[in-house]
Amino acid sequence: MEDRRQWPLYEVFVRARGGLDHKHVGSLHAADARMAIEHARDLYTRRQEGVSIWAVPSNAIIASDPSESDSMFEPARDKVYRHPTFYEIPDEVKTL
Amino acid sequence: MSDLFRYVLRLGDLSLVLGQRLSEWVGHSPALEEDLGLANISLDLIGQARLLLSYAGEIEGKGRDEDKLAYLREQGAYFNAILAEQPNGDFGQTIVRQVLIDAFQLELYERMTASRDARLAAIAAKSVKEVRYHLRYSSGWLVRLGDGTPESHVRAQAALGLLWPYTVELFAPDDVDQRMADAGIAPHLSDVYVAWSARMDALLSEATLKRPADRPHAWHGKRGQHSEHLGYILAEMQYLQRTYPDARW
To answer: In whole numbers, what is the pLDDT of chain B averaged over residues?
Structure first.
């Protein structure tokens, strides 16, 4: 049975202003979705930090396993050719 | 004392006393998140009180600013409806008091944005956005508690029964309310009541709570006659200014 002594955990993402992406800012406890948004508003946007909030149940986030980080991330280390740094950029191109 | 001065004090005192009451939850709320939520609402209300009391001081024209009006008036010179000064009780009681006043302020300020008094219209326009959120917060909790566990339902219903009689004063117009409404400065309280009442019916039904019967009762907070509770609130709120007059920090 679900533990009802503690409200579920939510992760909060805030968009600082139009055009930017939502950034993870922290987490909070809330009993339901509506409360999660209200708590996020009160905890994370009281100093004008944002214009939009996403709240996601923490248990809905699928995370990579830290114990697998060797096989997950190390193989990318010596593949420098994957970075787009081998192109010569013509002088006329200013905005790339 | 001019009508407008008295009327603006009533609005300011309602926000100030309720804001001070809510601040008592800081450090005591059922969850850290609620602590911040209630503190935010408290600060919104005290912000509204500052605007209103500053304006009242200008109307009076005797050199009293927001601080003098807040910290150096005695109980009989406070004109808030006495619902605002009722004790916090349990969390449910605080929420019920909040819903009743939030909905009142929302309907009042929405109409006051069309006031012929430009200053009041501007204060209402700023405040109505805050109050709309306050009601979103408090009504969410009312439904959660009313339609929650048997325990939370019983407590919310009891708080409603306890506080409902005090709502009569919010909508009972006296001569000042009447003259302000006739002058187009304030909305007619009868209009505010109809909208408030419809909102309450919808909300209470969603929260599975029973609307208590209206009992005619004469409360006179608007005339400066208060329940025993206001004195304690003022004693705490005014202690510093009275002990160290003109202290600044």
So the answer is: 96
Query: What distance in Å separates residue A77's CA from the closest CA in chain B?
Result: 42
> Could you tell me the two tokens for B138?
């408090």
Q: Do B37 and A31 touch (CB under 8 A)?
A: no
Q: Do A46 and B40 touch (CB under 8 A)?
A: yes
Residue B137: how many CB atoms within 10 A of its CB?
Answer: 24
Chain A residues whose beta carbon lies within 8 Å of the beta carbon of residue B140: 34-35, 38
Residue B204 sits at the vertex; the CA angle it makes with B201 and B210, to the nearest 5 degrees, is 95
Best interface-test mutation with B: which of A29, A39, A53 has the largest number of B CBs within 10 A?
A: A39
Contact assignment for B37 to A42 by CB distance below 8 Å = yes
> Which fold is adopted by the domain A9-82?
Ubiquitin-like (UB roll) (3.10.20)
Q: Is A49 on the interface with B (CB under 8 A)?
A: no
Angle at B147 between CA B211 and CA B127, to 5 degrees: 70
Q: Give the model confidence (pLDDT) of B64-118 as tens digits.
A: 999 999 999 999 999 999 999 999 999 999 999 999 999 999 999 999 999 999 9
Give the start-to-end residue ranges of the domains of chain B.
3-243
Say if domain B3-243 classifies as CATH 1.20.1260.10: yes
**Band of pLDDT at residue A1, cut at 50, 70 and 90:** very low
Q: Which run of H or of E encompasses A40?
A: helix A33-44
For chain A, the structural domain boundaries read 9-82
Render pLDDT for A75-96 as a digit per residue (tens, 0 to 9). 888 888 888 877 888 888 887 6
